[in-house]
Write a structure and sequence with these properties.
Length: 751
């Protein structure tokens, strides 16, 4: 057992033994017995005073007064007992001296002062109205019970002395204050880490009140004798108040609250327990006349009604505030996504047709990132005002995401929807002037129709979103209606993606090779590796179908590496078989090219397959090199490896000429679309210009998609050295490609 606990229990036991022993002195003399027990009570009071005063010297200055007031209360109590002890041998009278009673009542002043100091320190918590209601209820209940059972009977006492009756009355009023102390301190327990400190104080003050109540009751009955068990209760009260200081440890940590179940929270439990107790006592004593218990019950009942009214008003206000938070967009005041979904009941019951128009503000995030969130907020607020002004009455407008608005638009004819969308686009794309910035947004609208497309609000929103994002990706304003073919394409897309994820594991991909020939001799000088997908159920699937899906799903990195590794290994095999080395061209996706580990992957593939870097060429599209600085860095890394690079589909972009001379590339590939023009216009200036441009930049030129002898002849006339196309051979499997190679190895002429 803890030494301090053992000491405390020993003190309580010693007091009980002392009072038990004192009862045996009753046959000797009443005043001697009282003298002995008063010495015990005084000793306890002085020891408690010492503990409390000692604690006041250890705590922080801002808390010192609380402990000094408590020590003052115990000291006055002990001093009042000392006065009685001094007077007892002189007077041999066992009656309590008036001066002692006065000092004891003075002790209450210090207890009240300590409590008020504690209240001031925690006023932020106790300032809540619910606490004051509860304290008022406790005080009314205690006052009613005390008056009915204790104070009221004193008026009819004729047998006791005036001073005894007056002291008894004063003690009862003081006890009401002490009861206030007990209740308040019990609240404060939840604010203190050292809860046992206040628990001891609550117990001590409660014992003081109990002792005073029994003292008053016995006085009324005329059966009180000094030195009996009531004095024992007072002595124990002093001891427990002293324990408050003995057990106190200065709290250096901040206050914390412990969660509790609502029904057992003191602010809920105590008020209703008070009125229940008062009701029981009132019914037990009620004689159909208005008395103190009836008055107390009525006051408490009124308090509770007032409190519940205030709670209901507060709850209604909180519900409204919660609705604003939950269903209103903070920035615009429009309904948010939750309000949009909540509105679906009115929407479903609408007799006419209605359109859901989803408005996406394209480039909004670009401006917000460039100019900051404050400008972004002003953009949204301005757009909200513009849309509200252009929409007719009865149309609901919501802000459903950061840069999207949703409109519920009742209509009779579809031409009304088109007119509304046209009006919206005009107002949205008009220039905004915000913080000295001129901002032009690009509106994109998706439209779904109720009940044609769906009767469910979320489904309509999803379909409008699908119409918006499945439409052509352009930087021009547009609006698109949902079409069921969009869902069909989406399902096919998802199904294709699932099959694509398993294709690598099931070895469904193959690499085909299309030869590149020197136009003057038609000797094979290189080959392009092209992926083919032979699905076991659907057969051959065109790369034009599955490559975009692979890029969108992120599978292109795995597929691209597999193609590169397979083609490099096959090229090395051709060399091992004794064929002259050929330059292998492999297409690279923009996502692969932008991968920070791309060059490291190429290097690792070359090492694993044993192919020399000079026999590998990577083909990239001109759209990849729009970020010229990043592109130059990657191309330079590839050049250091010894890998060649070429620009595929040259001429189909819009900025190649601006960056071409800065790029460390080796080859230009003329796109098939330009070669096809040679059939209609043999003197096409574009093809001739591209060839001359490449030659001036010391680049090799390759024309792809050659299908006729005329195309070959024209290209050869313009000076194009190398070509590929169905005129020479379609893409074929590796074993078929071997058959295209000469039996005797020709001398390899580099282009």
């Amino acid at each position: 057992m803890n030494l301090l606990k053992f000491f405390s229990i020993s003190c309580i036991g010693l007091i009980l033994l002392s009072f038990g022993f004192g009862q045996f002195l009753i046959e000797v003399s009443d005043w001697k017995r009282i003298l002995f027990l008063n010495i015990v009570q005084m000793t306890v009071g002085l020891v408690s005073t010492y503990w409390l005063f000692k604690t006041s010297q250890r705590v922080a200055k801002e808390n010192r007064l609380f402990w000094l007031f408590l020590s003052g209360g115990t000291f006055f109590s002990a001093f009042g007992t000392l006065v009685w002890i001094v007077l007892l041998p002189m007077t041999h009278s066992i009656q309590t001296p008036v001066i002692s009673s006065t000092l004891w009542i003075g002790a209450y002043f210090f207890y009240f002062s300590a409590l008020l100091f504690k209240l001031r320190k925690t006023s932020a918590v106790l300032a809540r109205a619910s606490y004051f209601f509860n304290l008022a209820i406790y005080m009314v209940a205690a006052g009613s019970i005390s008056y009915y059972y204790l104070l009221h009977p004193l008026y009819y006492l004729q047998e006791q002395s005036f001073w005894l009756n007056a002291v008894t009355l004063l003690f009862q009023f003081a006890d009401l204050g002490i009861f206030f102390c007990i209740v308040t301190l019990y609240y404060l327990i939840q604010l203190e880490r050292n809860t046992h400190t206040l628990i001891f104080l609550v117990i001590g003050l409660l014992l003081q009140v109990i002792g005073d109540i029994f003292f008053a009751y016995l006085t009324i009955q005329g059966t009180y004798d000094a030195g009996e068990w009531v004095d024992l209760i007072w002595t124990l009260a002093l001891l427990f108040i002293g324990f408050t200081g003995l057990y106190h440890v200065p709290d250096k940590l901040p206050h914390s609250f412990k969660p509790n179940r609502p029904f057992f929270k003191r602010e809920f439990l105590f008020p209703y327990a008070s009125i229940f107790l008062l009701s029981l006592l009132m019914f037990e004593s009620y004689d159909w006349r208005f008395n103190a218990l009836s008055l107390g019950w009525f006051i408490i009942f009124t308090f509770i009604l007032v409190r519940q009214t205030i709670v209901l008003m507060k709850n209604n206000r909180l519900v409204k505030e919660l609705e604003n938070v939950a269903y209103k967009d903070r920035l615009t005041g429009l309904g948010n996504q939750s309000a949009f979904l909540q509105d679906q009941f009115d929407f479903k019951n609408h007799q006419n047709s209605a359109a859901l128009i989803l408005i996406h503000l394209n480039r909004f995030k670009v401006f917000m990132d460039a100019f900051g969130h404050q400008v972004g907020d002003q953009i949204i607020q301005t757009m909200s005002r513009r849309l509200s002004a252009v929409l007719p009455q009865g149309v609901h407008l919501f802000r459903t995401s950061e840069n999207e608005f949703t409109i519920l638009f009742p209509y009779e004819h579809e031409k009304e929807i088109h007119a509304c969308c046209d009006e919206i686009m005009i107002h949205v794309q008009s220039a905004l002037k915000i913080s000295h910035h001129e901002i032009h947004l690009i509106p994109r609208l998706g439209v779904s129709l109720f009940p044609r497309h769906s009767r469910d609000m979320e489904e309509l929103q999803r379909l409008a979103n699908e119409a918006l994002y499945r439409s052509p990706r352009t930087n021009q304003p547009f609006y698109a209606f949902y079409d069921q073919t969009l869902s069909l394409r989406l399902l096919q897309h998802l199904e294709m993606e699932n099959h694509l994820r398993n294709a690598l594991q099931r070895n469904e991909f193959e690499v085909y090779y299309q030869p590149k020939v020197q136009l003057s001799t038609e000797n094979i000088v290189g080959m392009e590796a092209l992926i083919r997908w032979k699905h076991p159920e659907f057969g051959f699937i065109s790369p034009a179908e599955f490559i975009p899906i692979a890029e969108e799903s992120g599978l292109i990195n795995q597929i691209g590496e597999w193609v590169l590794r397979t083609a490099c290994a096959q090229n090395k095999t051709f060399q091992t078989m004794g064929f002259a080395p050929l330059l292998l061209s492999v297409n690279v996706s923009s996502l692969q090219f932008q991968n920070p580990l791309f060059t490291q992957m190429v290097k690792q593939v070359l090492q694993d397959t044993g192919l020399q870097a000079q026999w590998l060429e990577l083909e990239i599209t001109e759209s990849i090199v729009q970020d010229i600085q990043e592109s130059i860095t990657i191309l330079q890394e590839l050049a250091r490896l010894g890998v060649q690079t070429s620009i595929d589909d040259f001429g189909t972009g819009y900025s190649s000429l601006n960056v071409l001379e800065h790029l460390p590339i080796d080859t230009l590939k003329i796109d098939k679309s330009f070669v096809d023009r040679l059939n209609d216009d043999p003197s096409s200036p574009i093809v001739k210009t591209i060839i001359e441009l490449g030659m001036n930049l010391n680049l090799s030129i390759v024309a792809e998609g050659i299908e006729t002898a005329q195309q070959k002849m024209i290209l050869q006339h313009y000076g194009c050295p190398i070509g590929q196309g169905y005129l020479f051979s379609p893409p074929v499997e590796a074993k078929t490609f071997i058959a295209l190679l000469p039996n005797e190895n020709p001398v390899f002429n580099t282009p």
